[in-house]
Amino acid sequence: MDVVSYSRARQDLARLMDRASDDRSPLIVTRRGGKAVVVLSLAEYRDMEEMLHLMRSPTNARRLLRSIRAAERGDVTPRTLIESKSVKGRRQAKK
Description:
Layout: E1 2-5, H1 6-11, H2 13-23, E2 27-31, E3 34-39, H3 42-55, H4 58-73, H5 85-94
Parallel strand pairs: 1-2
Antiparallel strand pairs: 2-3
């Protein structure tokens, strides 16, 4: 995570915003004598909100963490997604 001063951020805001968005890497902006802030891409912010929402339920959090650990160990089984007949029917009707 990069840290820049308020003065530098003000001079180079567009490029810093692009970098935060493209790299999905937060940027800390500091002010002399003031509170620091974080510049974060909208996509990264939304992902964080979703993760916080999913982790709010202790049961769901345990399931997700167990699944993440299994995936990290390579203990996963690839599966093909199967569309329901109603979804297939709607797609064919649109053609």
